[in-house]
Amino acid sequence: MEQRHQDENETSNGGDYFVVKAKDQGVTVIGLTRGKDTRFHHTEKLDKGEVLIAQFTDHTSAVKVRGKAVVYTKHGIIDTEE
């Protein structure tokens, strides 16, 4: 049986990727921490047409998107206007 070692870029929780594409100016993507106290830990501001490719990590358990955007995940596509 082949043993697979964890790559330094992977995380122990699977590290699922997601993509946020801004449909308007000033879309905000906020990363929320994992653990007993959920906190904001990272914020990105996107302009119309910009794309952010991000990954859930040991530190990021959730993401909040403000503004008009399309979010692509392995679970489907979410349009914030719907």
Could you walk me through the main structural features you see in this protein, from its secondary elements to its overall organization?
The protein is mostly beta strands and 82 residues long. It has a domain at 25-79: Sandwich (Immunoglobulin-like). The protein has no helices and seven strands. The strands form two sheets. It has a four-stranded antiparallel β-sheet with strand order 4-1-6-7, with no helix packed on it. Strands 3-2-5 form a three-stranded antiparallel β-sheet, with no helix packed on it. A hairpin with a 6-residue loop joins strand 2 and strand 3. It is globular and about 35 Å long. This is Transcription attenuation protein MtrB. One of its GO terms (molecular function) is RNA binding.
Look up the CATH topology of the domain at 25-79. Answer: Immunoglobulin-like
N- to C-terminal distance: 47 Å
The secondary structure category is mainly beta
Helical content class: under 10%
Give the topology string: H per helix, E per strand: EEEEEEE
Strand content: over 45%
Average pLDDT level = 83
CATH H level, superfamily name of the domain at 25-79: TRAP-like
Number of helices: 0
Strand order, main sheet: write it out: 4-1-6-7
Name the poorly predicted regions: 1-12
Please give the number of β-strands: 7
